[in-house]
Specification:
single chain; 387 residues; alpha+beta; four-stranded mixed β-sheet; 37% helix
Length: 387
């Protein structure tokens, strides 16, 4: 794109955003090829983990949205055994490139546990935390159940219930003294020393805080294609106050180009890696935590799509449903669908379907029928049923 161009249309912005996330390419014929895993993960950059299992944990759905029916077990082995990725607090709990380890060191240094965590009730919390590390050093990867039991204090209203043992492991994970070796079938973390998981080239690299923020924002821009200061800052959960000066530096370096976007009230920034496809084809159901929609103000600007997840909303007050997925067709979000995997009945349940304004309902339903059938097959379900 020529540097002299300073304004783009709303349609171009949508296509840039979709291309940055890998939606400008058709789903591959061999979706379980590691090269496709790597391509999808690197486009996403930050794979937010969420284990709500009404349908399938959201992070697995993000990969399916881009690749189609891949081998989930092979994907999990690749995530945790390739040494190319690691779990970290990034957007939220996330899978990130292992090269992000030194970039997130300033975050680990600033990490503080929840103020009500029960470690404070122990007589010698520092000594207990050190004994936990000693056990990991001696025995290798372990879970909270592998630690000697510690009496937990009584719960108070509003407390997040976790055993003391798990709080200790989470404390070390937040500080970077432990990493995640793998996830068990119940999604529980197996904790391990970082030196057994992450190559020294990453663990020993020292990056200053401002340089780390600048690089994280560059990566955010590459994954978004185009975004405002708020959009870029949100990707790695950075404040706009911290992000602003670093974005200005990226503009000065030519990494970002300020542009106006039709209909946007905020200044936008275009990544130097942005692609401008003439069209986006295909269809995909999106996870509620897909980077295309996870920052709701951006989803509204890009797609005129007001999206709220209503899992924690009382049923009587829900507008759309319990676990509602956006449905993308081409470069628009054309519907939202409340889905549930009824595994005993081997059926994908469509509990509600809502069309967006101004869409072709017949075209949407034809494309959605194909997508639902493919999703059901991937989940090992035999049929799709509308409730």
């Amino acid at each position: 794109m020529p540097v002299r161009r300073t304004n783009i249309s709303a349609g171009e912005a949508r296509r840039v955003a979709l291309a940055a996330q890998g939606f400008d390419r058709p789903r591959p014929a061999s979706p379980s090829d590691i090269r496709h895993f790597r391509r999808a993960l690197n486009a996403i950059g930050v794979l937010q983990l969420d284990f709500v299992n009404v349908l399938i944990p959201a992070h697995f759905l993000m990969i399916w949205s881009r690749l189609g029916g891949y081998d989930r077990r092979r994907f999990e082995r690749y995530l945790y055994d390739s040494r190319e990725y690691t779990e970290q607090w990034a957007h939220e709990a996330s899978i990130v490139r292992v090269g992000d380890w030194p970039l997130l060191e300033y975050r680990r240094q600033a990490w503080t546990p929840w103020k009500r965590n029960p470690l404070k009730t122990l007589d010698d919390p520092g000594g207990y935390l050190e004994r936990v590390l000693e056990q990991v050093r001696a025995e290798g990867g372990l879970t909270a159940k592998d630690l000697p039991a510690v009496e937990s204090p009584g719960r108070k209203p509003g407390d997040w219930h976790r055993p003391v043992e798990r709080w200790a492991l989470e404390h070390h994970f937040g500080r970077g003294k432990l990493g995640v070796r793998r996830r068990l079938t119940n999604f529980q973390r197996v904790y391990e020393l970082p030196e057994r998981l992450i190559d020294s080239v990453h663990r020993d690299k020292i990056v200053g805080e401002n340089d780390a923020r600048r690089e994280l924002l560059r990566q955010s821009a590459a994954s978004l294609g185009i975004g405002t200061v708020r959009d870029l800052a949100d990707y790695y959960r950075m404040s706009t106050r911290d992000a602003g000066p670093r974005i200005a530096e990226l503009v000065e370096e030519g990494v970002l180009t300020p542009v106006g976007v039709e209909g946007w009230n905020e200044q936008a920034y275009l990544s130097q890696e942005a692609r401008f496809p003439r069209e986006i084809v295909g269809a995909s159901l999106l996870s509620p935590f897909d980077p295309l929609v996870w920052f709701r103000p951006r989803a509204e600007r890009l797609f005129d799509f007001e999206y709220r997840i209503e899992i924690y909303v009382p049923e009587a007050k829900r507008r759309w449903g319990y676990y509602v997925l956006p449905f993308r067709l081409g470069d628009r979000i054309v519907a939202r669908v409340d889905l549930k995997a009824d595994r005993p009945a081997r059926t994908l349940l469509v509990r509600s379907l809502h069309h967006e304004r101004g869409t072709d309902e017949k075209e949407t339903e034809f494309a959605l029928q194909s997508e639902l059938g493919a999703l059901a097959a991937w989940l090992g379900l035999e049929s799709v049923a509308y409730c």
